[in-house]
Amino acid sequence: MYEGIKKAKSGDVITDRSKEMERWVEHYSELFTTENTVSEEAINNISALPALDELDTESTIAELEKTINSLIDVMASRNKYATFSNGIKVPLLGLGTWKSKPGEVKNAIKTAIDAGYRHFDGAFSYENEKEVGNAYHEKITDGTVKREDLFITTKLWATYHRPERVEYGLRLSLKALQLDYVDLYLIHTPMGIQYKGDDVLFPNGENGEFLADDICPTETWKAMEKLVEKGLTKSIGVSNFTIRQMEDILKIAKVPIATNQVENHPCLDQKEMTDFCKSKNILITSYSPFGSPDRPWASDKDPNLLEDPVVKEIAGGKGCTPGQLLIAYHLCQGFLCIPKSVTPSRIQQNFQLEKPRPLSLLDVRRRQIYGLPRTISR
Ligand SMILES: NC(=O)c1ccc[n+]([C@@H]2O[C@H](COP(=O)([O-])OP(=O)(O)OC[C@H]3O[C@@H](n4cnc5c(N)ncnc54)[C@H](OP(=O)(O)O)[C@@H]3O)[C@@H](O)[C@H]2O)c1
Fold this sequence. Notes:
Elements: H1 2-7, H2 17-34, H3 40-44, H4 61-75, E1 81-83, E2 89-91, E3 95-96, H5 105-115, E4 119-121, H6 129-141, E5 151-156, H7 163-177, E6 182-187, E7 192-193, E8 212-213, H8 217-229, E9 233-239, H9 243-252, E10 259-263, H10 271-279, E11 283-287, H11 309-318, H12 322-331, E12 336-337, H13 344-351, H14 361-366
Helix pairs in contact: 2-4, 5-6, 5-13, 6-7, 7-8, 8-9, 11-12
The structure holds NADP nicotinamide-adenine-dinucleotide phosphate (NAP).
């Protein structure tokens, strides 16, 4: 049967899509394990790919070949890049730094750079940017990397949403990070909080009440655009925004939204959001890809994605660890992915994506990874 596919010409029509796709995955799996042939163009085109369930039975061999090639390329994507709509490249896989404590985070970043990571996700509110900056500085000074080799993200905290405070908020981060610019600056959350000082992230009122600040995110966005003009960030984006909030920004944006960084994993698949972003040429960045087992409000009763029997079973079949499988789950769907770890062996292991045999969207759906319980506490 496979011979038939090989002989098929571009433009031929196939009728049994799922069977053919499986055979193609198997075939490319073999290629993948012997030679890592990655087409940069395919990686760049990943966000434009149709999802499998969008391909109808009239889909042509050419369409399927393009899809499969790109999936395989993404699986081989150590240090491969996606491209924002402004043309700027971003490594698909990055290291997260939320909850990475001072005393741990410097070593984590240096280990990651040595392992090959070039994309790092941080935020002012993680309260570790000084040490994160020390790690970049040391690796640049000792010649391991150049600044331009690194893709560095940080985020505007909610107390800096007023337009007159936006540049100040970024400059606080730049100073701590010892950088002249970041590669990506995100509005961390759509809701503003009243400013009560740089060291007060969550101010409370006299009666302990939450002090929201009533600023429309579109006003904050206009001030974010000025940071691009000034060269303080190369790209800008949002995080934790709803579709409606993004639509509001799109109505006034002169600089494109590069990405929406959202929680995304098999227990919280963001299909509506990911479809929307794809239609607007906005990349998805998946945060908490392992379900954030170390989140401060985790409950013992919550399922642990890394320990989930379905995840473990599929990972076993693919010759990879649950963590590698959960990362592949994002990359094969064209999402940027930023798992966090401060453990050197895990940092290295999470980056070794050439090990798992390719995971396709077909696997994801057939093995019902989407059927995992959605009961993680939020
Ligand atoms: N924009 C936002 O609002 C937002 C919100 C949440 C997260 N984020 C970003 O996304 C990043 C990742 O999300 P997250 O930190 O919530 O959680 P996560 O990446 O889903 O999970 C991190 C946890 O998984 C553990 N871990 C990592 N690799 C592992 C492996 N191979 N095997 C077993 N355990 C492993 C880590 O342990 P060790 O560290 O002890 O190794 C840590 O406990 C954050 O760090 C942050 O940069 C952004």
